[in-house]
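Entry for the shared binder. Reason: the reviewer on the internal report wants the predicted structure included alongside the sequence.
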Amino acid sequence: MPLRRAVLALLATGPLLSLAGRPARAAPKARLWPRWEAHEPGSTLRVDHTAWAALLEHLLRPQPDGRRLVAYRDAGPAERAALEAYLATLSTTPVSRLSRPEQMAFWINLYNALTVKVVLDHWPVRSIRDIDISPGLFADGPWGARLITVEGEPLGLDDIEHRILRPIWRDPRIHYAVNCASMGCPDLAAEPYAGDRIDAQLDRAGFEFVNHPRAVRIEKGKLFVSSIYHWFKEDFGGDDRAVVAHLCAYAAPALALELQKYDRIDGHAYDWAINAAP
């Protein structure tokens, strides 16, 4: 057993893994990479995400509970080639010349497509956390690995989420849009994100997740939420009251009425099993 995996296995028996998540390290902070602030407000350039739309249509499987899971096993040579070609196109995109909404859609779609590719490259796999390609002895999963080059800059998943998307837009709905290939994560959207309708798409993603039990559960008078709201509490207002207020904003009426009774969160959980369709 490689040293890194042996150390992580040892840690799994201790208190660092008492809560689900990326326990070998704290959740990454949002730290701006200034190089990616450049944009053109009046730009009419549009990125073509047609290939990603076709892949989503082919691979996503609606489930009886309303979820959308990914049929990784159904991705044959044609689908893998199409994904490679799509990512190659994104890597040549002049991102700095796009408007802010178009940039946001670009980065979200890139993150999600890269995540699917990482899983396919290592399929079959029980959890994305088993894909230990990040640098460093205590690294867990693929998030730190450089996977693509955009405008001459090698980028990894952590760069896209925590150094570009979160610090530039400061929008908690980003956590509903980027998918980490896990059962506890918000689903992949059924269509690519698009700059001209991204606000409505993000609202829909928030509504879908908040109203599913993996996001919010009330049991015996106690409130349990997804660990996303614990790891990234600062993005959702900074304390339990703010998180509950955020949940109320996206909850269906009956759930919102129940949530208004709470000013603290009693626990959180997250399922890192791969989001593969059965």
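Summary line for the report: The mean pLDDT is 92.
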